[in-house]
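Notebook B, p. 112. Complex prediction, attempt 2.
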Amino acid sequence: MKVLNKKNLVILLAVLVVYGGVQAAIAARLIPPFYSVNLMLICVYVILATSLNLINGVTGQFSIGHAGFMAIGAYLSAIVSVKLHGPLGAAILAGGIVSAAVGFLVGLPTLRLKGDYLAITTLGVGQIVQVVFFNTNYVGGAAGFTVPRTVNWTWAFWLTVISVVIIHNFTNSTHGRACISVRENEIAAEAMGINSTKYKVMAFTLGSFLGGLAGGLYANYMYLIQPTTFSFLTSFNILVMVVLGGLGSMTGSIVGAVVMTVLSAYLSQFPEWRMVLTALLLIVVMLFRPSGLLGTKEFNLGFLGKKGESRAA
Amino acid sequence: MLLKLEHLSKSFGGLKAVADLNIEIGQGELVGLIGPNGAGKTTVFNLLTGVYEPSEGKMIFAGKDVGGLRPYQVTHRGIARTFQNIRLFGDLSVIDNVKIAFHQHAKYSAFSAILRLPSFFRSEDEMESKALALLEVFHLRGRAGEVAKNLPYGEQRRLEIARAMATEPRLLLLDEPAAGMNPQETRGLMELIRWLRDNFQLTILLIEHDMSLVMGVCERIYVLDYGMIIASGTPEEIRTDPKVIEAYLGEEAI
Amino acid sequence: MGHVLREGLQQVVNGLSMGSVYALIALGYTMVYGIVKLINFAHGDVMMIGAYVGWLATSRLHMSFVPALLLAMASCALLGVIIERIAYKPLRNATRVAALITAIGVSLFLEYGNMLVASAQVRSYPPVLPSVSYKVGGVYLQYGAIVIFATTIILMILLTLTVRYTKIGKAMRAASFDKDAALMMGVNVNSTISATFAIGSALAAAAGVLYGAYYNTIDPLMGIIPGLKAFIAAVLGGIGIIPGAVVGGLVLGLTESAVSALGASTWRDAVAFLILILVLILKPSGLFGKNVREKV
């Protein structure tokens, strides 16, 4: 079996150790609520950042409305679990699917737009999504939607792992290379037989699906979701994680998500300082290291001696 | 006839970049398209590859009209090209550049890729070996893992042709393949072009400024000036055509 | 019937006032985009800073309306130039996405930096404009609304004259058409870009002071939504086109007040963004723009 090579086995082992360790700590009541909330948020943001990286980093498009898709996933999953009394898995999946459908419908006409026009359009879509939930009394309107907590560490952790594996496997395939070629040079990509529109829409839809899953996790953990939770500040936050990690680097996005979530947690007493520092970090990184922490490279396990799969970029 | 352009025209606003073009290219021919700067040569390539839509006229390739198709669709029909200003995927490895061009022949869906089904591994292995074999042909195998933009200029040009070949075309369009090459590299390129044509049952149309290359390698030549064909024939006929000499006067010594 | 008509006209007045604010901000957006091809995300926040300077000048320094307006415009002109020099100039040859990310960073910095300095608290403007209303044909015309509208028109005319007839205006047009060619023709591109940022930021500051004086309350996040709306206005009118920005701003303001009049004021933002998306999909060059294509 090619899947079970040495590198993958080592990763699997590491994943199991992290999961088991935290699970044991939770069972032994060693983790205070502050940390468990943030562990959960790390999972949510890792999914959001890696899925936005698929759109912005791998495919070279520029979305700054990712929180909109998170919102769709959150509200839809909440409707399924609260109003329809569906099981958690079905709720989260439904959120992802509807989010993907919206992503597809929005992406089809708008992904023809270039760079900054696309950016402002996705921001607009995020705002529209927010306004729609704000005005829908069925989901609580401005007051918000109360959702019981059904997500636990097992759900959050494995959903995150699955999302990351999906993104990794997609990126490291001929379809992922097609997306990368669109980022590198759209005209050349088309000349090489790549339907650039198809791959932009595909990446955007897959990214929206995973963003929706993250929203579902969030909604079914946080007790309350409100339209304002998914404002463009949330979108910017996700963007900062991706940019700091390095556009195009999946591992960079993971690191970015973890670091920024931890930083926000510790600076939560000083929200203004947190935002000012984030802003300065963003500017300084763009001025002095525009490719982010890792550029398009990935942390890899080269030291294991076996040649890994070809890198994402 | 593999390619037939009938009364092909393209205007930008009021400017006619290409006017009433009639070109016929048979299977296996090696044809040159020359002309002074701004004569509309690259516009012809852009029309052929779907970058521009023709204002008038027809483009029949292998019996079917390819006018109005998107660039990737034209590539799927069997026309591949290189660019005058090299357009490699600069930050990617040499082999990935070639693998991307194999994409349309890949035999697994995005779904199989995500689930890592057996078809993924089978098709990836096949693409890897095909890409390496192609790089071997272009003497680039040793460079497979390098980042494309770090290759020397001549090798970047060769890689661009290799990448175009990976789409498995019937017609290859080369846009100034010798631009920026030294005489020795140009000679090597001439041999490569001939060899490609003979070994891949390929038809080649090339735009060139370097007269020694065009005269040395092409069997037939079309001369374009102000968007119109002013002469066509064998290299010998072109060399002595007074209209061609006039068009090129002061521009290039023939 | 008469009542409906009066109500409608009242909404037109409201729409034109808000639309004027959008138009003033949109002018800066459109000029900056025209010359450096950057969506200056921080532009709405420059408007916010302008509003705060105006507030300081009127409430703390007890200045009257016009001097406060001029002070705000001058300070923001300086701020605009500083932002450009520090944050955008080094990235002029970088990717547009890098510049856009930086602009987002500058925007967040201004918002939360000001929150640190002036606190997140909502401030109210002193009554700098007389709260007189004129009743014209059953419609109340507030003094403030007239001032906003008149100021916008005056500034737009001044700007058009500047761009059309002065040396710096010619340099701006040359630089926005082709930066390299302008440079070779002896245009000092750097100072032209600075001037563009200065003028655009001064207009945004004017919008901020007018906004504060007319709508009374200001806060550090007040610039975000008008900034985005102004961008929509600029796109609607055709980005890079000065009268287009004004028309776009007024059209957007009128549309929003129409939506409010229909009792759907909470949907206003959604409608504005929907307009943006439709314009970008159907006619990305805007109402007054021409289409261009990438060279291969």
